[in-house]
Task: structure prediction
Amino acid sequence: RYEGTQVGQLDMEFLHEGICKYDRKAIWETKKLSEPVLEAKDNYNDDLRKILGSYNVASKEWVIRQYDHEVQGGSVVKPLMGAENDGPMDAAVIRPKYDHDKGVAMSCGMNPCYGDIDPYWMALAGIDEAVRNLVCVGADPERIAILDNYCWGDCTRPETLGALVRASQACYDGAMAFGTPFISGKDSLNNEFVCEDGTRIAVPYTLLISAMGIVEDVNRCVTMDVKKAGNLIFVVGLTKNELGGSHYYKVHNELGANVPKMDLETSVAISRRVAKAIRQGLVRSCHDCSEGGLAVALAEMAFAGDLGIEADLRGLAVSDDCIKPDAMLFSESNSRYLIEVQPENFDVFAKLMLNIPFGQVGEVIEDKKLLIHDTNQNTVIDADLDTLKKAWQKPLAW
Result:
């Protein structure tokens, strides 16, 4: 109705049942892939710089600055913040009403590289990342809604439809576990092109998850830039030997097989525990660990805050098979958060994290460097923040 006049009427049965349903065949076969054997190194500085400079990870400041993200002055957490207002935030937060402290956080999650191995785990990783990003800024994980945006190939082909079914099953599993309803979405199927010679080119299986969450008090919002030298750095969540589809493999022109998986029950528990720590004021900064793994996340936190970080991999909670330095540094295992805590809050924070995987991996330092020591106390990353930041900013500084 518009101004009391009925302008449209549609029977719900027709809406849901009026179009005939297709009967199509869907096939999914697990791909036969293997892990590459990469040479062990004494130092991974070059690998870190290459990952930071890869297009998926590199700074998007140029395009972000094309948009006004301060409309009506309601922005609480902006896309870029930190010591020099150029650090990559995990999510954005707006305050719709000036006379109210409640806010709305928005984030996304996507990694088509995982879809080259298994679309199921790609979809779950997208949901988990979108939820993590919201939790990092202070959103309530029990008050999140999500949207899907599928970009797929020709679904008349059984193998392509099978991949779509597998991703959709993951969406159902993830939404039910996290309690995050899909409130809308968009499908872009049949993204293929046939060349003159008959060669078919299709987009990779891609699913973008967008998420919105409620922040009860925007005054308790947290950003990802480290705040003060002497503060402690924790990793909450388990790091596994999961380099399949990682950006570490990508810069070495490899794909791998061990795509990041997740235990949904544990993932939900971790998100709620981290959110509780933020509500209690125990968290000075928080950053999700995703593309590029731990080393990239530490570098981003450091140069966003214009302070160094010294880390020790002996404190990292890892699976039994995660023993190599490159796996610890660059694995993209899901459900992990990097958290900065003041020393006086160590005991309270550690007690809150009991019975979930976590560990203290380092501290914030005045020296503007990223130092990471392996489990044998060898320094596997020793890099100036300026060098890392330039590697991150240069590729898309148009």
User: Anything to note?
Assistant: The chain is about 30% helix and 20% strand. The mean pLDDT is 96. The longest strand covers residues 206-215.
